[in-house]
């Protein structure tokens, strides 16, 4: 979706302002927000693509005025309601009022180090051979889907070169919406800065994205 | 702007976000959906175990051991795992090497993808709109904010982490470090140099 998350090339946000020796967390609640997000995700009722889509579906005004842990927290509330784990009333009152969905699993403290060390690999076998090889010229598709996609707007309809064939990966555009993993080959596609930004672009700049096969057409 | 929010320091009970997160944790705990002790383990992991010192060890080994550097280039996930660094948001790693000709910078314009297994949790600026918007269109402007000025002819390659590959920049080894141990070299490897918004420290 052409949502607030799709930031590449936007202007007006001000300086990056790196913070010298910044703390890992800026408030105690951020620690709990991180942990609640990860432990709730570990129940296994939504995937990372659905999580990302919940975050980018926040109203743009809300997204841009929220820190990242705020974005995570607001999206987590949406996911928990959507999947029947909490109700609006419970969130408002700050306590459990009824049973909800039974979780597939609960991440216990003793299993947490192993779960973090294992992560959640997204590579999958793809039954077909890759359509492209390194060196191929490709053009990214022009589309504006209502749902989740990982092709940024700045890189749509652009001429690029396949630099590497990576692996088969879960396709976020369907996986975010409960429509299956449908793994596809992913390619690193590199663009000249002038192809993307046109007049005035830094002539020394190249930008790459990692693109699922269906984002690409031969050029 | 999010930037302003990030610099507030309300962590008392009256803070709306603190209350909101507390409510979530309370409800989920009462329903038996999460184990609050698991949250403590997660926080402790990223406060004390998984952080940019991991990545610094990878870089220092790559500087010291050509066979490891070659492995890191070909199969970063396996090479990094051989040092014990695996897991969440590092499942599929790629290492990109700075050269005299090309400087690499990593960004995630669409969210906040970051190689947790080697760099830990991302800094606020990495997740915030100013960096995510500007890195792909004006990387030299971004670098200037970090105090880095590259020669005009240096090529700049920006890697937008749009899929599940996570990128680790291997900065150039500083001059004057011949014969240094991996432990000494690792001290020169800053987090920002592994994102590409900085360079390795110069040898003292």
UniProtKB/TrEMBL annotation, chain A:
Protein name: Nitrile hydratase subunit beta
Reactions accelerated catalytically: an aliphatic primary amide = an aliphatic nitrile + H2O
Pfam families: NHase_beta_C, NHase_beta_N
Enzyme Commission number, as recorded: 4.2.1.84
Domain (Nitrile hydratase beta subunit) ranges: 121-218
Entry keywords, A to Z: Lyase
Domain Nitrile hydratase beta subunit-like N-terminal, residue spans: 1-104
Role: NHase catalyzes the hydration of various nitrile compounds to the corresponding amides.
Family assignment from sequence similarity: Belongs to the nitrile hydratase subunit beta family.
InterPro entries: CN_hydtase_beta-like_N, CN_hydtase_beta_C, CN_hydtase_beta_dom_C, Elect_transpt_acc-like_dom_sf, Nitrile_hydratase_bsu
GO terms, molecular function: nitrile hydratase activity; transition metal ion binding
TrEMBL record, chain B:
Catalysis: reaction(s): an aliphatic primary amide = an aliphatic nitrile + H2O
Domain Nitrile hydratase alpha/Thiocyanate hydrolase gamma: 17-197
Annotated Fe(3+) binding sites: 108, 111-113
Enzyme Commission number(s): 4.2.1.84
NCBIfam families recorded: nitrile_alph
Family: Belongs to the nitrile hydratase subunit alpha family.
Name of the protein described by the UniProt record: nitrile hydratase
Organism: Mesorhizobium zhangyense
């Amino acid at each position: 979706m052409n949502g607030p998350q799709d930031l590449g090339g936007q202007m007006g946000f001000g300086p990056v302002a790196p913070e010298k020796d910044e703390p890992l967390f800026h408030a105690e609640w951020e620690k709990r927000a991180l942990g609640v997000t990860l432990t709730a995700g570990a129940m296994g009722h939504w995937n990372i693509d659905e999580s990302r889509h919940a975050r980018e579906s926040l109203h743009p005004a809300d997204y841009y005025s929220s820190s990242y842990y705020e974005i995570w927290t607001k999206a987590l509330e949406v996911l928990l309601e959507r999947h029947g784990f909490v109700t609006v009333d419970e969130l408002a009152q700050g306590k459990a009022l009824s049973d909800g969905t039974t979780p597939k699993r609960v991440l216990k403290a003793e299993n947490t180090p192993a779960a973090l060390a294992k992560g959640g690999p997204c590579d999958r076998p793809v039954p077909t051979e890759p359509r492209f090889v390194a060196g191929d010229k490709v053009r990214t598709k022009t589309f504006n889907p209502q749902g989740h996609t990982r092709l940024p707007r700045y890189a749509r309809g652009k001429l690029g070169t396949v630099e590497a064939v990576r692996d088969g990966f879960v396709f976020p555009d369907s996986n975010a919406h409960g429509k299956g993993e449908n793994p596809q080959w992913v390619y690193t596609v590199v663009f000249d800065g002038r192809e993307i930004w046109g007049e005035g672009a830094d002539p020394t700049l190249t930008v790459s994205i990692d693109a699922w096969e269906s984002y690409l057409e031969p050029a | 702007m999010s930037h302003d929010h990030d610099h507030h320091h309300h962590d008392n009970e009256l803070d709306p976000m603190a209350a909101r997160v507390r409510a979530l944790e309370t409800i989920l705990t009462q329903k038996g959906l999460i184990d609050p002790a698991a949250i403590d383990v997660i926080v402790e992991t990223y406060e004390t175990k998984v952080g940019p010192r991991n990545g610094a060890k990878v870089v220092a080994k790559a500087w010291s051991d050509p066979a490891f550097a070659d492995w890191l280039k070909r199969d970063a996930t396996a090479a990094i795992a051989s040092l014990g660094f695996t897991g969440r948001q590092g499942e599929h790693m790629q290492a990109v090497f700075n050269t005299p000709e090309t400087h690499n910078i990593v960004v995630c314009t669409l969210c906040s993808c970051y190689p947790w297994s080697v760099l830990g949790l991302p800094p606020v600026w990495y997740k915030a709109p100013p960096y995510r918007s500007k890195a792909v269109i004006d990387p030299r402007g971004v670098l200037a904010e970090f105090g880095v000025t590259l020669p005009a002819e240096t090529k700049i390659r920006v890697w937008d982490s749009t899929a599940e590959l996570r990128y680790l920049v291997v900065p150039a080894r500083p001059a004057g470090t011949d014969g240094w141990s991996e432990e000494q070299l690792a001290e020169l490897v800053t987090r920002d140099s592994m994102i590409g918004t900085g360079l390795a420290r110069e040898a003292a």
